[in-house]
Amino acid sequence: MDLPSHSINAMKSMEVIDINTGTKLGLIKDLKIDTEEYKVISIILPGSKVGGWFSKGNDIEIDWTDIQKIGVDVILVNGDNLFVNKD
Fold it and tell me: What are phi and psi of 80, to 5 degrees?
């Protein structure tokens, strides 16, 4: 059985949507990868920039297990466990 696969570049152009609220969360900015297990741990989305043009936004981290479905042009996630990274 062939599993569907997507390139990182293709995934970065897919809209990420919370299935609970229907909210568009944005596009993938980065991936967090476990280099020992060769697995994706989470996806990182750019957060909203509060405070003006030059302010740093808080990134949103979504655990890979919270991804419900990867389609042709959209990624559906369970947004109950969103983590906002305030680095």
Answer: -65, -30
